Amino acid sequence: MAITKKDVIDFIKSLGEAEAAELCLEAFKHKRIESHYENGDFQIDDAYSLAICTFGSNSGEVDEEAIIQLYAQSYDNTSPLPEDGFDQMGECEFCKAELISYDKWVVCPICKKQNGLT
Description:
Elements: H1 5-14, H2 17-28, E1 32-38, E2 42-47, E3 51-58, E4 61-71, E5 73-74, E6 88-91, E7 98-101, E8 105-107, E9 114-116
Parallel strand pairs: 4-7
Antiparallel strand pairs: 1-2, 3-4, 5-8, 6-7, 8-9
């Protein structure tokens, strides 16, 4: 029996937030969208990432500002995956991307540097 798209979606829905995020990141880990050079010396890479988007609304209208935080994977993969929720966040000290995770020690999905979140 073949696995259907609905089966995959139902399975992912059954997972906790962190487990679903880890599964999706692993599936897209090696997919680079594009890599090219600008002016012959500056490399530009595009890659898939997961993000948490936080926004509010007033009377059905979305507020002007939204917070977009990239999901960062654990640095050493020793922390158990929580049932749900991401409670660690911060800014990458190298590339300044806003990060969110379930673990305190993570790897930035943009620059691949280790960071500590609070």
